[in-house]
Amino acid sequence: MGLRSYIITRILLTIPTLLLLLTMVFLVMRVLPGDPVALHFEKKADPEQMEAMRHILGLDKPLLNQYADYIVGLVDIGYLVAHGFPNLGKSMSNFDEVGGQVFSVFPATLELAIYSITLASLMGILLGVVASKSHNSIWDRLIRGFGTITYAVPVFFLGIVLQLIFGVYLRWLPTGLRIDPSMGLPPPTITGLYTIDSLLAGDVLKFFESVKALILPTLTLGIILSGIFVRLTRTNMLETLRLDFVTAAKARGLTDDNVTFGYALRNAFLPILTMMGLQFAALLGGAVLTETTFSWRGLGTYMLERINARDYTAIQGAVTVFGLLVALVSLAVDILYAYLDPRIRL
Amino acid sequence: MISRTKVKRSIMGNLISPLLSMSRKGSSGWMVIVGLVIVTVIVVMTALAPWISPHNPNAQVGPIRQPPSLEFPMGTDHLQRDMLSRIISGGSVMLQVSAFSVFLCFLLGVPLGLFSSYTGGYFDRAASLVVDAVYAFPGLVIAIAVAAMLGPGVINMALSIAVVYIPSYFRIVRSQVLTIKELTYVEAARATGAKWYTVLYRYVLPNVIPSIVIVATINFADAILTAAGLTFVGLGGTYDIPDWGWDLTDGRKYLLSGAWWIITFPGLMIILLALGFTLIGEGLSELLNPKLQR
Question: In Å, what is the CA distance from B183 to each residue of A84, B118, B186, B204, B275?
């Protein structure tokens, strides 16, 4: 199978998974304890008001019709082109388009996710290589211990501790928000990522401010996620370093670094790549807590804010986007994997 | 009753005896022992809280937000309560939530995995599809969504956490049973005319138990962290029940005043408890899968 037909098959296989995922989201939000409108009003509003809202939101239709509306809305290309975001229904609070709200906060989560996963994998791979090179030494033990402890630390606790040290005591870094409010408006939106938009606008000052605001959240999420990469890199490197081709490379007189990074790590990298895809879901979960800790206005804080407003249609929209994101990333990782490792396409 | 002693014996054989021998030579055995000690100490401390805490954890006994001192070794919070007493009794919510959710996962995930894998066919394929979809989804996001629909409380928290982790049990049981059901002794049991549920319960299940124990201990750690996360986003308990997660969340409001003791001690306790379970799980998995051990 060529790369192209592999990609097509993989995309087709994503469709049933996605459909299943969307169905689950729908079931959780609509069927679980009953009526979202009654929950929204905490059963205090008069029946007419509740009936009016049901009608506007289409919640008075039979469940199957609501389900069809939900799925059809998501694949409505015309709507997507006209608005620039998919149809996720209307908010219960002000009947705004949920899609618009979700996609205005989405880049914040994306920015945090990109920098965190980069930090986590770099840190994890580096520490994992160091540990495997000095197998069973004190460094190996310390790094393994680090990997185990990161597993047990609540991500928001690490965030709070970093805020306390670098924000409250040392006053080096801001404890929250994506950019200091004293800087005025955020950079003009092109990608929605402040670090990139500020550079595109040629505003170096805002670039540095947005980087400063990113450091603590990225460190928090990156450190917590790095543990799994440490473990995986270490195990795979230990296995690879024993293989004949590594010995052969050493025998040819290549430098130690060259053998480690050019030969062994390249081979140990594929399982790490898979793990990066799998960890993306964990990353998003951690991002919800990290965003809350750092008042980072992203998808996670949006979802929690909507929960407090008892805005169930908006919660459904946010959860849907989380699900779509995970499915897309796992698709991208699989394709990248097939590109890097031709064996998978056989 | 015979089968229960069989299960017991297989746990003894597979878990306890290698543990005792490994404690003499390997680090994995020590991980399990240290983990067990941490968890036992915390459970006993929480159970004995009413008798050993110096103060009532909800009583106003000192000044507002006093740093650690001789009288209040862990300081006091903004409601003048003694942090040490709150730490001693604050594990109960987390232990209850995680124990209940692990129990639920066990109750639903294991039979489902056993049945699905053993019978195979359409049911197995459908169940695997659903489970894989849940498994791929960000766990905390599902837990938050379910908890938001169900409302606060220990049982609802446990339910929303269980939803996230049932797939782990299902997957591990399913993959194990796929191999076990092809073994000769299972075939022999079937040949003697044993009913499918007898085969599953008496012949297949005992061999799956060790793997489930590992998943359950790791799941305990995950459940504790998820419970803490749910509390942190406001879907947990209330202020009148001492809870590390709640103290940590509420203490964050006084972060800017530099009141580090209100957040540090509850945070460290959560880490310690989760670490205890992680050590048990990791140690056990290394003991039972010597191939993975390096």
Answer: 56, 12, 6, 10, 37
DSSP state of B242: -
Sign, CA dihedral A246-A249-A254-A258, equals negative
Q: Please tell me which of the candidates A33, A304, A323 has its beta carbon nearest to residue B149.
A: A33
pLDDT tens for B154-195 read: 888 999 999 989 998 998 899 888 888 888 898 898 889 888
What span, in angstroms and rounded, lies between the C-alpha atoms of B131 and A251? Answer: 49
Residue B76, SS3?
A: strand
Smallest CA–CA distance from B273 into chain A, residue: A152
Residue of A nearest to B138 (CA): A281
**What is the per-residue pLDDT across B20-62, written as a single tens digit (0 to 9) for each?**
665 554 677 788 889 999 999 999 999 998 898 888 888 888 7
CA distance B135 to A281: 9
Q: Cβ B221–A151 below 8 Å, yes or no?
A: yes
Residue B143 C-alpha, separation from nearest chain A C-alpha, in angstroms: 10
Q: Is the Cβ pair B138, A151 closer than 8 Å?
A: no
Which residues lie closer than 8 Å to B241 by C-beta, 6 or more apart?
Answer: B92, B93
pTM exceeds 0.90 for this model: no
A92, A141, A160, A296: best to mutate for the B interface, most B CBs within 10 A:
A160
